[in-house]
Target: Molybdopterin molybdenumtransferase
Amino acid sequence: MKKIKTVEAVGYVLQHDITQILPGEFKGRIFKKGHVILEEDIPKLLNLGKDHIYVFELGEKGVHENDAALILGKLGKGKNVFTDVEIKEGKINFRADCDGILKVNTEQLLELNMLGEISFATLPNNYSVKKGELIAGARVIPLVISKEKMDMARSLIKTPILKVVPYRSYKVGIITTGNEIFYGRIKDKFGEIIKNKLSEYKCEVIGQSLCPDDKEIIKSSAKKLLNEGADMLIFTGGMSVDPDDLTPSSIIEMGGELVTYGAPVLPGSMFLLSYLGDIPMMGLPGCVMFSKRTIFDIILSRVMTGEILKKRDIMLYGNGGLCQDCEICHYPNCSFGKQG
Model:
């Protein structure tokens, strides 16, 4: 920072706001801190009594905060992400260009912020977002940052930090098990709950089969729904370790890849995920029927993008997998399902 004559200030960066006062008419900021002084600004500054001003010199080694924000925009903006047209006070905002799951390259994000003098903040990785939603913001800390630092940032980030994976359209088959429901002793309440949760996405429920506690019938009903075009199967009922509960073994015996039977999430520890080829099959524990939000909500959003989840993906939810069962549910704007 240095003090120079205003008439020699073209190309320098203002270090403070400059206020104009017109008695009885106007009082307010006319030049903002960080403004790059132009030739046409000189008479205005002189008329404000500013014969000298305090400035930063950009030169060949400095990058103005707004130009640095544009660089950060390019480093952050991946598929299905756009940035606001206007950069405000050196900050650039990133938004989702579709409904889907936000993917954050957390390792590169950490490395970028570790450079110092750069602030890049995002929503959590694997967060469910809506089109137009603010998902990240970035800026440099000083008004003028070294060109060398920004060159380091560009060389560090090989692929964009952010992307949004859009939801797919699925045809869903529901298989509800249990003698008590099959024989009409009690009314099924699970199906309607599942349909309501699926309505948050672009899904078509092509059918719901009620099955007794018979593995062959359960498997046969599932195969029938697959033959009718289902590309996702959801099983409800009979998911505990009780010997009479046959749903988990029925799903496993259908073949495919068992990802997990059990998860470090409460509510939802008896959840099962398997893939028959690329067809996800989920076995839902009873808590989905009476809890506001469970593991099903967390996993369903990711499954809806076509992502093939692995066991590690599920086990990572142990950190952040406890629902606090708030009286007023704010999910997804809460800690549940947010990996720390």
